[in-house]
């Protein structure tokens, strides 16, 4: 699991551009080691700092207006392996080891449906029962 | 290359939630067939319609405030192979065949740097010279 020191975190955060999305947010793409994209969420500076400090992904919930540790309720944590930054320094790509499933619906990835003609067709793998996990 | 008819596009667009980001935008993750994430950009309804209609990715440029066909200047188009939609129906994942490079800096992917201790270390592959391409 990848963790960073306080001085490394300060240097990294200073490089990031949080100005592009209202509320000071960055889009974060989460991908597993096989290349599967699990989810996209948003992080503010606090969430980026927590992710780098703990080695587990943290995001900012726009609906609840609060910091959110991924998997805190479900136990389906994301252990950070590598963090990539894009050309504009306003987007992160985090490679993780996903415990359980990445999506609150029980699928391994949030992108469990493909556009098939005019319809949404389920192609993802269900790995847990949300009624059991979030009771 | 994946294209959709007018009636399919109307059905798909009706399923999408453009309300989460100011200006009616969705984040779009672009990935190649090997699982490499190339870029993240934003699309409004018009950009989604153009992508589905033509089979090439289109986005909305927040800085230029206009529709943008990826690769229009450089020739580095993205041919759409598959489109996935997330659980909240507010984010798209598009798998493409990337012609040339995905990043305006000349790298194949915009995520060409990894966080290595407090520094940004280049690990990506440079595939073109931007001074030649954008002259």
Indicate the topology.
The structure is a homodimer of 135-residue chains.
Chain A lengths: L5 H10 L10 E7 L4 E7 L1 H10 L3 E4 L4 E4 L8 E8 L6 E7 L14 E4 L2 E4 L7 H4 L2
Parallel strand pairs in A: 1-6
Antiparallel strand pairs in A: 1-2, 3-4, 5-6, 7-8
Helix pairs in contact in A: 1-2
Strand element count of chain A:
8
Radius of gyration of chain A: 15 Å
Largest sheet of chain A, described in full?
4 strands, mixed
| Approximate helicity band of chain A | 10-25%
Which whole number gives the mean pLDDT of chain A? 96
The CATH level-2 architecture of chain A is identified as Roll
Number of domains of chain A: 1
N-to-C series of helices and strands of chain A = HEEHEEEEEEH
Uncertain stretches of chain A: none
Percent in strands of chain A: 25-35%
The CATH superfamily name of chain A is: Phosphoribosyl-AMP cyclohydrolase
Strand order of the largest sheet of chain A: 2-1-6-5
Distance between the termini of chain A: 29 Å
Q: By helix and strand content of chain A, what is the structural category?
A: alpha+beta
Query: Oligomeric state of the chains?
Result: homodimer
CATH topology of chain A: Ubiquitin-like (UB roll)
Anisotropy-based shape of chain A: globular
> What's the level 1 CATH class of chain A?
Alpha Beta
Number of helices of chain A: 3
Identify the biggest protein-protein contact and residues per side. Answer: A-B, 46 and 46 residues
């Amino acid at each position: 699991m990848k963790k960073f020191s306080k001085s490394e975190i300060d240097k990294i955060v200073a490089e990031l551009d949080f100005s592009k999305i209202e509320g000071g947010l960055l889009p974060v793409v989460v991908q597993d080691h096989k290349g599967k994209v699990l989810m996209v969420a948003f992080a503010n500076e606090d969430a980026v700092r927590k992710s780098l400090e703990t080695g587990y992904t943290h995001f900012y919930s726009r609906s609840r207006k609060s910091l959110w540790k991924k998997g805190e309720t479900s136990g389906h944590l994301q252990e950070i392996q590598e963090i990539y930054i894009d050309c504009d320094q306003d987007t992160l790509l985090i490679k993780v080891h996903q415990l359980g499933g990445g999506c609150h619906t029980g699928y391994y990835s949030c992108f469990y449906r493909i556009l098939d003609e005019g319809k949404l067709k389920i192609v993802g793998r269900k790995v847990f029962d949300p009624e059991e996990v979030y009771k």
